[in-house]
Structures are given as structure tokens and as C-alpha cells.
Design brief:
- This protein is an alpha+beta fold and 239 residues long.
- The protein folds into two domains: 51 residues, no CATH class; 154 residues, START domain (Alpha-D-Glucose-1,6-Bisphosphate, Chain A, domain 4, 2-Layer Sandwich), CATH 3.30.530.20.
- Helix content is 37%, strand content 26%.
- The chain has seven helices and seven strands, in the order ααααβαββββββαα.
- α1 runs antiparallel to α2.
- The longest helix is centred in the first third of the chain and has 21 residues.
- The N and C termini lie far apart (51 Å).
Length: 239
Amino acid sequence: MELASHAKRNVGNSERWISIVGGAAMTAYGLARRSKGGLTLAGLGGALLWRGATGVCPVYKAAGISTNGHTTEETDRQVSVPYGKGIRVEKSVTVNAPPEQLYAFWRNFENLPRFMDHLEMVHVIDSKRSQWRTKGPAGIKAEWEAEIINEVPNELIGWRSIDGSNVHNAGSVHFTPRAHGTEVRVLLRYDPPGGVLGAAFAKLFGEDPDHQVKEELRRFKQLVETGEVATTEGQPTGR
């Protein structure tokens, strides 16, 4: 049974489904902890369940945002995260290696899980498309297909999730020669499962996207320069 009229709902159907799944998982996880913090998580999970059931997000309402509608055909072709929506992250690191080496390593997306802890798998489908699988809060997993939309050999790789993906994201990585190596700059914009509210939940699990990208670039630098990535226990995990 719908709890809000279509006119009042501001959360799209696919996002509502993700909110319900994520809210249920968070509520169960919080109750299982049997602690004050667990009750807080359970309460937040309940709020996410309510968001999915009603299709109403107070955060979206305050910001004048609605995903309960259809974008234009032109917008669908060009972007996966409309301007002004989602979360934007920009980080950089200087790596002691030439641009062509770093570009070649990154261009094979199946290398990315070697230094991106949140990625479980990237499968290259063809020269433009790839399948991604990631792990999220409370063990929730997400998959999407991405395509390369802009590429300059040894300088730039740009990608976006294709239409219909559950996790909408777009980004680019830039390789710029510097005096002591190459500056690797990553720009990422994405709508996390559950929208802006879901991002706040993810941070409770230590998955702040800004910090996460910074750490991933640090591991990338370490992997390229030393051939391995050290764990927090000081043991090598590089391949």
C-alpha cells in the first residue's frame, strides 16, 4: 500500500527499493549489537525503511530535489549523475613513475581491486565497458556497468555508469607529468544507494568517500613504487 501520493513522493522507484533493502539490513545489524550505538543504527535503519516505503525524503524536499520522475533523453545520454546532485570527491597524489606506466595500469580496470578495498571485482567486457561489484555498509553489495566516455592516452580516462544502474556514478582520472613523477588526480561524483541520506549512514561505518579515495590513492602510490600494499598489520598484500 502506498503511504504517499505520487505528487508528494520525491524518491524514484529503484532508489526506494534500495532504501528498503539497506534499511532492513541496517535495522537487523543494529538490533543484533544490543547496545546504545546499535539502537541508534536500528533507528536510522527504520528511517531508511520509512523513506523507501513512503517514497518521501525530507532531505530531498529541503533541497528541492526529486528522483521520482524522468530525465530527458539528452540528459540520459550524457550524464549518470546530474549536475548539483550526488557527492563529489576530488583527490590527487604524486607517484614516482611516468604517466604512460600509470595510465596503462589504470586502463586495465581489473587492476583496481588491488588497491581499492571497497571493490570486490571489476570485469572488463570490451574496450569500453566493464562490470563492477562493490561491498557497502552492513555487508550490502552493489553492482553496475560502466562505460568509458572520454579518453586521451597517457593523460585522461573518463567513465560513467550506464543507464539503469543501481549505483549512479561518473568520474575521471588525470595523469599530469611533474618534476618528481606524475600527479594522479581523481574526480568522482556519485549518488550512493539511498541518496544523500544513505551517504550519511555509510559514514557511520567508516566509509567516508573523501577519506576513502585519499586512502586508495595512497595505496596506489605504494603499489606502484614498492610493488606491494602494506596492511594495517604491516603484512604485504600486493600482487
